[in-house]
Amino acid sequence: MSFYEICGGQPLRGELRVQGAKNSALPILAAALLAPGQSVIRNCPDLSDVTAALEILRLLGCSAVREGDTVLIDASQLTGCRIPDRLMREMRSSVIFLGALLGRLGRAELSYPGGCELGPRPIDLHLNALCGLGAEIAEDQGRLTCTCGQGLVGRELCLSIPSVGATENTMLAACAAQGMTTIVGAAREPEIVDLQKFLNSMGARVSGAGSPVISIQGGIPLHAAEHTVMGDRIVAATYLCAVGAAGGQLRLTGVDPADLAAVCSCLEEAGCRLCTDQEGISIAASGRMRGIRTVRTAPYPGFPTDAQAILMAALAGGTGTTMIVENIFDSRYRHVDELARMGADIQLAGRVAVVTGSRLHGAVVRSTDLRGGAALVVAALGAEGVSRVSGLSHIRRGYQGLDESLAALGADIRTRL
Ligand code: UD1
Prior knowledge:
The chain is an alpha+beta fold. It is built from 14 helices and 23 strands.
């Protein structure tokens, strides 16, 4: 079982170009299915979730080749519409292929994604929206068969929760639906804007991404296209919090500071010095982070749930008290028990966590999910002594070369096999 061995207390210094965003690359890879020809996706991060998406594309008959950080997808010859259970289990967001398959082939077969380490992850909003466009969905022993015999037809759809995945799935299917689809109550995340850019470069007519109302003029023949995936704002937040915990000075490029406004304002309030410009973000931190006003996770532009564990880890090694309220997922505090092994003082009551800063010490800890794992690394970087963080498969779902990048910035981190 491999693990990171981290000797904490080394400040981080230097400059880092942030990898492409996982949560943008996945729907964009699914979108490449919508048209024949070869799409070129640049800045596509090399992560286990992306590898799973490429495997799905190959199983469906596409050619999918990685050349460095560029991925070439040729979706000219689709031969299948079925995603095996194994890949659905490996990556819950495989459900994003549903809208694209329905749009391109009029049929998709996949298993119900079920729960995950964050608690129940329903897809009712995805299915309702697709049914609204004319899809028919049958469920048999956890397998879903989705068809659209009469073809998809655009209309106005309302999402009761601004679900990121449901918004993306609907955008993909709506490109193939005849007429205009309007998604009211759409998610506003920057990754949705990136998906809109790629779809429009394929010839689609999508507008409104980044606002709660997205319009898609469907039925326009699409063609393959080129796109550069946006920088990963959660990976950027992780490095910023790592500097908050360990101290130092770091400049991040390849990410839009506007996408990180909620995270940056928390770090500033906690005593870090931040400076943003068009190319990136610089952070300087010395001394321990201070407790801050209540942090409530919320859909974008609110504080991202994906950065909750990471900020908590940095605050846990600081001073003062902070209340955190997790509003998006039911079970997103599994990292708390592991942080406690490092001496963190965190009291949980339902959705609320009260973090009282204290000096953390090294410990043997295990990641239970992707961002929870990154949080343990952040805590270990700021802790006194040696920590061992296992469960690296979770971390590799979303971070490319986390150990190497941190080591290049001066962290004492090694991967042991
Ligand atoms: C995406 C991100 C994930 C992030 C999350 C919230 C990807 C690949 N993943 O996940 O990293 O944590 O957004 O920012 O982009 N819900 C329903 N029914 C549905 C769909 C969602 O009730 O059909 C609920 C969920 O249980 C959750 C909330 O809506 O409570 C938000 O989920 P959603 O935005 O859909 O998250 P994902 O798209 O799965």
